[in-house]
Amino acid sequence: MLRFVSFGSGSSGNCYYLSTATDGLLVDIGVGIRALKKHFKDYGIRLNSVRQILVTHDHADHIKSVGAFSCEYGVPVYATEKVHNGIDRNYCVLRKVAPGLKKVITPSETLKIGDFTVTPFSIPHDASENVGYQIDVEGVSFVIITDVGSVTEEVRRHIANAHYLILEANHDVEMLTNGPYPARLKQRILSASGHLSNAECAKAIAENMTEKLRHVWLCHLSEENNHPELARKTVETILRSYGIIPGKDIQLEVLKRKIPSGVYDLIPAVEELSLF
Which of 110, 124, 112 has the alpha carbon at shortest distance from 155? Predict the structure, then answer.
């Protein structure tokens, strides 16, 4: 049984957990190490179940506690060479990843990591480098695409592969445009190496999903330029305009910024998804 938990999604800290009966991994650790330990205890998850860490990119909200967790539990960290170098340079990472725990990955090169078959793929974003992940295990394709400035052909291809999808819906364009951010920051967010809007997220799903997609979680919502209900309604409205009915054709949820999600069982053979 494959299980998924989000321990945080947004600029306050990102961290996602996937586990089988015998293996576990974290994608990004941008939440505080004490908070993460508390979440694990609250959910009855053993810390030593995490046997590998995947990193998307080197912005602080994705890597703050990567070194601390990796060193404390001896867990290898998989990232591109540029991202590893970025982690070493980032002053927000107080404890760096030990050289012996660094594992270098290359976009588009699939590798077997424990129970998981992992394919990193390039994502446009203004970090040293950024990748999404397609994680295949037990007949499930789980795809994570966060901090993505534009929808490339590679991004489209992996959305089409997904049974379960985490996709960024960072901002509402009108809220961002009329909000308090300085013009330069607004331009950065709206650029092709910035972040996806709610509408761009919805179109990416609608235009690339296949009949095997079961569940979508919207991630990395802006606290200042978005709202969970606005994101959900915007995405749902656009999906419906394509003839896709959330709640019937796919499940659609918004991941909270600072509050962990429930524990989701990801089941390959049936369409139901259980939340406990």
Answer: 124
Residue type at 49 in one-letter notation: S
Residue 273 has pLDDT above 70, yes or no: no
Q: Which residue has the tokens 């078959």?
A: 117
| CA 60-63-66 angle, 5° bins | 150
Q: Which two tokens stand for residue 149?
A: 């400035």
The neighbouring-strand residues paired with 197 are 171
CA distance 9 to 144: 12
DSSP assigned state of 101: G
Name the band, by pLDDT with cuts 50, 70 and 90, for residue 156.
very high
Query: What does the alpha-carbon distance between residue 265 and residue 19 come to, in Å, rounded to a whole number?
Result: 10
d(CA 136, CA 187): 36
Q: What is the DSSP letter of 224?
A: S
Query: What token pair was written down for 145?
Result: 């695409």
Bridge-based pairing of strands 251-254 and 215-219 is: parallel
Taking only the tens place, the pLDDT of each residue in 137-149 is 999 999 999 999 9
